[in-house]
Structure formats: C-alpha cells, structure tokens
Amino acid sequence: xxxxxxxxxxFALPLLIIAIGGIFSERxxxxxxxxxxxxxxxxxxxxxCFVLITQILPMDSAVAFYLSFLAAALGGCAFSLIHAxxxxxxRANQVISGVVINIAAVALTGFLTVQINTLAFAGASNKFxxxxxxxxxxxxxxxxxxxxxxxxxxxxxxxLIVVLAVICWFLLYRSRIGLRIRACxxxxxAVDAAGLSVxxxxxxxxxxxxxxxxxxxxxxxxxxxANVSPSIYFGGGFLAIAAMIFxxxxxxxxxxxxxxxxxxxxxxxxxxxxxxxDSSVTDLAMxxxxxxxxxxxxxxxxxxxxxxxxxxxxxxxxx
Amino acid sequence: xxxAIIELRHISKSFPGILANDDISLTINQGEIFAILGENGAxxxxxxxxxxxMYSPDAGEIWLRGKKTNITSPARAVELDIGxxxxxxxxxxxxxxxxxxxxxDEPLRRLAGIAGLDRKAAxxxxxxxxxxxxxxxxxxxxxxxIGVSSQQRVEILKMLYRSxxxxxxxxxxxxxxxxxxERLLAxxxxxxxxxxxxxxxxxxxxxxxxxxxxxAILNHGRLIEVFDVASTSTQTMANRMVGYELxxxxxxxxxxxxxxxxxxxxxxxxxxxxxxxxDAVSLKVHAGEVFALAGVAGNGQMELADAxxxxxxxxxxxxxxxxxxxxxxxxxxxxxxxxAYIPEDRQQVGLILDFTVSENLMSKSYFRPPYCKGPxxxxxAAARLAEDICQRYDxxxxxxxxxxxxxxxxGNQQKLIVAREIEAQGDLVIFVQPTRGLDIGATLGIRQRIxxxxxxxxxxxxxxxxxxxxxxxxxxxxxxxxxxxxxxAPASExxxxxxxxxxxxxxx
Amino acid sequence: MKASRRLEGLLVAGVAVLLALLVISVIxxxxxxxxxxxxxSLLQGxxxxxxxxxxxxxxxxxxxxxxxxxMTPMLFAALAVAIAFRAGLFNIGVAGQMLxxxxxxxxxxxxxxxxxxxxxxxxxxxGLAVGGxxxxxxxxxxxxxNIHEVVSTIMLNYIVLYITSFFIxxxxxxxxxxxxxAISSEARLTLMNVDLGGLSSRLPLCFxxxxxxxxxxxxxxxxxxxxxxxxxxxxxxxxxxxxxxxARRTIVLSMALSGCSAGLAGVTYYLGCFNSILPxxxxxxxxxxxxxxxxxxSNPLGxxxxxxxxxxxxxxxxxxxxxxxxxxxxxxxMIGVVLLFSACGGFFQYLLGRxxxxxxxxxxxxxxxxxxxxxxxxxxxxxxxxxxxxxxxxEYDQDAKAAGQP
Lengths: 319, 508, 406
Fold this sequence. Notes:
The structure holds three protein chains of three kinds. Chain B is 33% helix and 28% strand. Chain B is an alpha/beta fold. In chain B, the strands form six sheets. In chain B, strands 6-9-10-3-11-12 form a six-stranded mixed sheet, with helices on both faces. Chain B has a six-stranded mixed sheet with strand order 18-21-22-15-23-24, sandwiched between helices. In chain B, strands 2-1-4-5 form a four-stranded antiparallel sheet, covered by helices on one side. The model of chain B has no long low-confidence stretch (mean pLDDT 88). Chain C has two domains: 1-46 and 328-370 and 388-406, no CATH class; 55-315, ABC transporter involved in vitamin B12 uptake, BtuC (Orthogonal Bundle). The two termini of chain C are 35 Å apart. Chains A and B meet through α6 and α7 of A and α2, α3 and β8 of B.
C-alpha cells in the first residue's frame, strides 16, 4: 500500500503543477496543448543549470538543485512566450501552435543538449545527468498508519508544489489578476470594455503556465529518470491536460484527477512487482494511466464546461 | 447659463466604403439628457464609439470640459469619467453582479502582505449605489440568472461605480418591453437629477420626447439639426429625422389564411445542460399567415425554432408539417419536407464564412440534382445557378459567386441566407431576428420579402425580439414567456402595452 | 479568384520556408559552420546534387530513389493529417496509427510464408484496415463523447507504443539487433538493390500509390458530396449541422480516411523503408507529417511538394552531419522552425485577407449599395458580441463549441 501512495504522490504532484499551468492559460482563453513542450524545455534549462553549476563551478549540488528549479521555471516561461506570441499577437490557431511548440521543443532541446555537451563536456550525449534528489520523511507524521505514507520519502519539490498550488489557488480565485484571467476566458469583450488589455492578461496567463509547466518538467526529471533526456517527453503534458479537463478547469477537482492518475500508475506497477511478473509486463502496466484517461474521458467529457472564449482569437476590431 | 461639457468640432470618420460621420460639430451641456436620433446606419453608434474611445476620428477635435482631449481608448474614456452601456452587454455570465462591476477597478485588501480582492468593501459600495438609485438588484446574483433589464442595470452600475459623469446609452431600449423601457427612462431621469450628463442614442422618437432635453438628428453621417425637445413638436422632429429616408412602413394586404402548415402541440425541449427551455408549447401556423412570436430574449424562442427545424432533440410533444408527423426526423428530412429556416446567428450557423457565395447557396441542396450527379458535385452548374440567384436577390459581392462569404457585408450575408431558404420553395419559412443589425435598406428589403412570402401562400413563423417588427409584420401574435406561450391573438387585437405585460409575465 | 487564393497559400508557404532557412543559417553560423556548405551537403545526401564520390554501384540516382522511398510514408502520413485538418480535426496520432498498422502487418503477413503476389497487397490491406479502425475509433470518441481528438490520439499513441513494445520484446525480438525480427522480403513494399541503369538502388513500390492517393483526396474534397460535407464540418460544425449534414458521421468518416492513410504510411515505413520495428519508439514521421500538412495548408496536392521538401531535410541530414560535421538534430530543428513559421501563416493570410476585405467593401459600396452598414459599429456581427441575452447553449451549440477545445 505504502509504495503506491509514495510513488503515486511523487507522480501526481508534478502533474498537478503542470495542470495548474494549463488552467491559467485556458481560463484566460488560450488553448494550451504546448504543455508537453513547455515542461520539456523547462526540464532542459533546469538540467542545464544543474550541470553547469555542478560541473563548471565547484558548488554544492544542493544549491544547484534548488537553482535548477528557478531555471526550469524561467525556461518554461520563456519558451511559452512563443505560444503567447503566436496565439495572441499573430492570431495562429491555438491548437496548431501548441502542437508546433511541442515539436519545436523536442527538436530544440535535443539539438542544444548535444551541442552543449559537445562544446562544454566533450561528449555528444543527449542527456544531462542529474543527481537523484534526496528524499525525506516528515518526522512523527510519517508514522501514522496508511496516511503516514503521504509524508514518507518525499522529494523536496513535493512540499514546494503544495505551497505553490495554494498560492495559485489564491491567485486564481481570490486575487485581482485571477478575476481578470477568468474573465478573459469567458468574455474578452467585457474585459476590453472594462478598460483592460486582453492581450496583456493572456500574456501573463500563458507565461505563468509556461513557468509552472517548466517547474513540473524538472520535477519529473529528478523523480523519474534523474536525467534530462528526450525521454522527458513521455506525455506528461497531455496527462495534465486530461486532468484539467476532468477537473472542469477548476483547481481542486484537477488535484483529485492528478491523484487518481498518479495512484493508478503506481498501483499498476506495484501489481506487476507483487505478482512477480516478467519485467516486460511493466510495459503493459505503463498503459494504465493513458487507458484510464480515455475511459474517464468517455464518462466525463460530455459534462465538461470549457471556458466560453477558449480558443478564440480575440479581435479588438470585432465588437 | 448651461455649461458645455463636451464639444465636438468637425468630427469625421469613415470606414471602407462608408462615410459614417461627416463633419459633425455639436455641444453637449453639463447635466442634460442629450439624445442622438437617427435611423439605423445614420452614424450615431459611430459617434458614440468615438466619444468612448473605441474609434479615433479621422478628422476633428473633441473638447472635454473646455480642454482639447484625445480619447484614445475605452480605458482613457473611463479615466475621463465617461461611461457607456453598449447595445450588446459586456458582461461575464458566470460572474456575480459585484464581480462584473468591479472588474478592472477592483478594491484590494492586504492579507499578510498579499493583495487579495476585497469583496466586502466592493459589496458595500455597490449596495449603496443600488439603494441610491433604487435598482432592485442582488449584488451576489449571477448574471446568467438575471433578466435582460437587470443586466442592463448592472451595466449602468458599472459606470456609476467608476464615478462616470458622462453616461452614454447605445440603443438601450432595443431589447426591452414597454414596461421595462418606462422604468429605464425613469432611471435615466434620476441620473440626470443627480447631476450626470446623459447621451442617449436611439431611433425611437417617443423616448426622446419623454426624457431628452435636447436632441441632435443624424442622417447619413451628417448632423441635420439640434432641437430643444420641449419646444419642438414630434412631427417636426419626425420629418427632419426621416428626411428623404425610406419609409419603413410595409404595405400589407389583409391576410388570407389557408390550411394549417405547422402544428406544434405540447412541445417540450431541454437543452444540453438539461434545463427546460420550451415548455408544452402549442401553436398553429397557416398558409398565408405571418405568425409572430414576441418575447424577451432567452425565453425559449430560439430553442423552439431549433426544435422545429430539427436541430434540437424534442423531449415530448409533437411537430406536424402539413399534417405529417416530423417530430423525430432529421434536420435534412425536414428541410426537404419544406421547412426553410433563417437562423438567429447568421455568421456561425446560417453561413459557412470560409465558403464561397456559390457554395453557401448550395449548402442545403448540394446532395441532389442539379448540384450533384451521383457522388460528384456539379460546380459549374452550381456557379451558374448562384449567379442567377445573386442577380435576382441583389446579393453584391466583389468577385461574384467565388467570393468568400466572410468578406460580404452583413446585409448581403443575410440576403444570401434568405435567398437560399426561399429558393428552397418550402411551405414554412422560419425567420429568427431577420433584420437584427441590418441597415435600413436591407431591413426594408427583408421585411417586404417576408410579406411577399406570406402573399404567395406560405406559412411564416417570425421570431423577433423587437416588438416594433412584430407589430409591423404579424397577422397573429404569440407571446412566449419562460418557455410557455403566454398569449395568442390576432395582431389587430393586442396593443403594445398588453404585449409587454405578457412578455414580462406580469399578465397571464 | 480561387486560383489567386491558392497562389497566396504557396506564397505563404514559401515565405515560411525562406524565413526558416534564414533562422537556421544563423544557428549554423553560431555554431561555427558555413551554412552554404551545410545546405549543399544536405542536398547531396538527399540525391539532388551529386556527391564528390560514391561507393561502387551507387550514384546520385541511388540517393534520389532512397529519398523517394523515405518520402512515400511521409506523403501518406501528411495526407492523413491533411484530410483530418480539412474536417477540422487534428490527427496527431499518426505515429501510433502507423505503429499499430506496421506491427500487425509484420506479425500477420511479414512472418508468413506467403509469396509476394499475395503478401504485398495483403500488407497494404492490413495497413488500411488497422489504421482505418484506429482512426474511426478516435472519430467515434469525438462524435459520441466529445473527446478532443488531440488528447485521445496522444493517449492511443502511448497505448499502442507500450502494447507493441510488450509483444515485440516478449515474442518477436531479434536478440542481436534488439528490434523485431526482420520480415520476409516477399512482404516488403520496397525492393532492395534493384539494378537501375547499372546503379543498385531501392525501388519504393508504393510511391505512385501515395501520389495517386493525394490526387484522389484532392478530388474527393473538391468534387464530391462527401468532400463538401467534410469541408463544411471542418469550417463550421454548427453551420454544417444547420445545413442538415450529419456532422458525427462525417467526423467518423474523415477520421477513418485519415487513419487509413496513416496505416498505409505505417506499412510503407515499417515494411518498406525498414523491415523491422524498434520497440518502444514512435517514428518521427508521425510528427514531421504535421509540418508537411501545415506547410501545404492541408491541400493534398500541395502535400506532395511539401513532403518532398521535408523528406529532403530528414533524409539528407545523415550525410550532412557526417560531412559537414553538424549534429543531425539540426534537421529536426529546421522542421521545427518551418513549423513555427507556417503556424504563423494564418497571420499573413489574415493580413492579406484584411486588405482584400477592405478592397471588397469598397467595391461593394461603389457598386451602388448606397446605404452604409450600420455605422460599422459592429452591430452587424452578432457572433462576436457574445451577448449574454443570447440563447444559452442549445445542444448543437455546445457540441460545436467544444470542437476547438480539448
């Protein structure tokens, strides 16, 4: 039971922060299928920051570890500006722009990783090696039966994500910018009439989604593979989008969806272990979250209420 | 001595092909109700948009409170204490009244250094305004749950909350019943008495007579004259307003009813969110009859039209066309059986904007000869037919039938839909909001077309939110309220006032 | 008029490619190489320009035939993306559909003792059927449950990936190559080492089939009832439903067509260009084809040109990286940049369109319309107003709304 919760949580929380990124963007009216690419680019800049600091500067890996999160958020944010530019300024189809950014991110991070490894570290590897993140347990709390697993063997980024999620909740539902973001996704004409700039609000929302997705990306890089490589594009961004849809573009239900995905994933792999099955069966267990998404979508897609102006190019001229 | 608050000097504004405002100069005084009167397309909305910073004039100056001012954006206008109630409200339907009002000017409260919304302060301020002007609104109600006239009061509150001193109303009574109109005019008067300056844009003379102090008449973008309302007779104003304009009155011969074409009985329809929209509606439309359904927006009339045309599932009840049961058939079957449908939303529903004129003209009959032979489209034949239709219905496009419909003007787009539907030679034609947003020439043309179809012996179901249109065209009037038919009567037997009461659900 | 719009599309694509080349040149310069050298070695690798020297029995024709071989699945895949695009659907599951089709064709036909006459058509049939079924399934999910096709196809990609990986690793693995066992040459859709005028070369049997399918799709869209329905649903689902078109049926059908084409891409890739499958790996073609379709503005005929271009980039990159000493990733980066610029294509067209509209309104007005259009205050645009009083969500309204969203 415990490993299911521990592994599930360590998968669900990065997923959540990416999904929250999606909520920011989509509640402002910008469809964001670019999350996958954004998380990959964020992981890339984060990983780059880590290897630069640890290998070039003789610095403590703990400092590098924390700085890499900042770098990941900045990288994701920067890359998301392309999406913002395409969708807000250049009136591109938002779905196409998202997919294009995903493809561009795979290509760009691959190219840059090899290029940088060749230049700086004299090896044409397509990976940045990270250290495995230190894990910790919360004293006392981790001893509670069953529930204690929620406080056991945590990655340092897990509490960080929880704090961030609370801040995001506040931003979305209790702050000025949140009111404006959600208004943009519902009726941008009204926002414009209130004397606000729809473009600027959406820019902020998309940039925020980039930063959050980038953060989620580096978390995945630390927790899943301890390196940044093309395998970071395992569909986490799309799982996050699915979670957001189940969550009806609302934060708390999205959290629940992420937990379901995370626990389903860890339960499936625990099952393979438990039944002492061949390791190739793990491949089958990997299907579980993706298949679960499809099955759940069958039941939930009908009742979703997407933001009204989602995907629409806002044209000031059209009143 | 009245004090000028706004002075327009030689304002001109043109759009491609149209000179919307042509050298307009006028002065608006502090604390008066200044009406701008003109037919659709006379340029009054453009003038208001310029005052609110939505357009910048091509030429001319605006002097505000004695200073030359550039109103570059709505935001700037708000800073200058100018507010505007748009014809189409700018509200967020899932937000509360309070949230809609504070959007863009939110009061903040610091909590441990973090600035959050101060809903309490906002609520108090708004409640004060509501009480002051007797608005009868609940600050916490969601916009989607309140009626059109309440929504309009929210729009007014938005301006007052930003302490606007100059309030622009763009056609505020277009969607209101006579009773609601009266109430609005009272509010406008109260605002004036509180020292606000009101600019009222309208094409309804009687409203001006009731509230306005002075009135400017626009025609074809030019300022005709400014009147002192109290000392000018309605007749004089009417003459000046219409000028050489077309007369909107339609000549109508007495109706000659035939057999019933459309029979709807006990029809109930739910929307996708399982909300009951149409509730046990029964009605009959005969050949040679214009049955007009009046009602305030959102009372189920659009859903009723969709259900009859086969675009929404029927929950219970039946629809019969020429005696034949069609309740469960597809939209295509019904179209073939003789239902023509001019939908409310021309651009999203009635047309495929990125298709050409000729493709749109065949969009309901592409699957049968002469447009189609076996599985193959006959594009050349279609183009020839389309050219003929364009000529007969006077549909103008820059590059003939290969023009994308997106680049047609609103009037020509609507003419295209009407042409297509009428060419289908159906026995029943459903018109929904057929003249909304059209200029006067196009409006007149469409209205004449409706009567012509009636005279040809077709049954016409007209759904309109404009009472004036209903009165002008109907042989029989039904009023829909809350998804139910509240009243049905021959057009000659009901007055405007009575209709308004049914529309509001006051009279049952 | 139509011709001028098409020309405009070509212009936009050309500008996108040129801009992309420019950006890539800057990047190449930045890593200290000569862009001209890089590009010419790219063209040499792709068989457009002769290389300085060739191994025995090989020549520029060898490379060019190799290019056509690589282009075959690319064109099929691009057509899959294009036809779905025209129906307003975004099939980014081409890679998964390819893999599923390739895997099943490998298992069913590739390992069978059938002779070429039977095996080759059967491979194509399996490809059509598997791809078509997967595509139709996605279309069904969209039409029936309103599941956004981008999400469902991505999920299916991973599901297919892991299932095939499991079976290949468990049952069909070649212990040396760590790939699936090679298929019989009877089933392979590309003939190897064919003697063409003294040069040994590949012969892609399905290349002409791919070109024919492009023409077929073009005619289908432009000249048939079904094509009209597909385009109508793609441009506006609401309006199509209003016109009496069964949008759900059309969506399933067009996704099935798209899947069929993707299936053909799969078999010509895994049982043509290659003869085995690398487990747990999706082909890049599935994603590069999006660039091809976008660049062609979803025109099937244009896809022929643009797939030739994109394949030149991918196919030539191998030789380029070995001779010019630059990472192969530059090719995929180039595709990425081409994609970015073609995604902006809409903006260029919008600018052109706005100019055109202004001109047309002018003409219309001078044509004697006489009366202005409502002061242009936009009252003629009920769709954009999102007026709160408008009928809140009738059923088909809801469906169509979701069309642009995940």
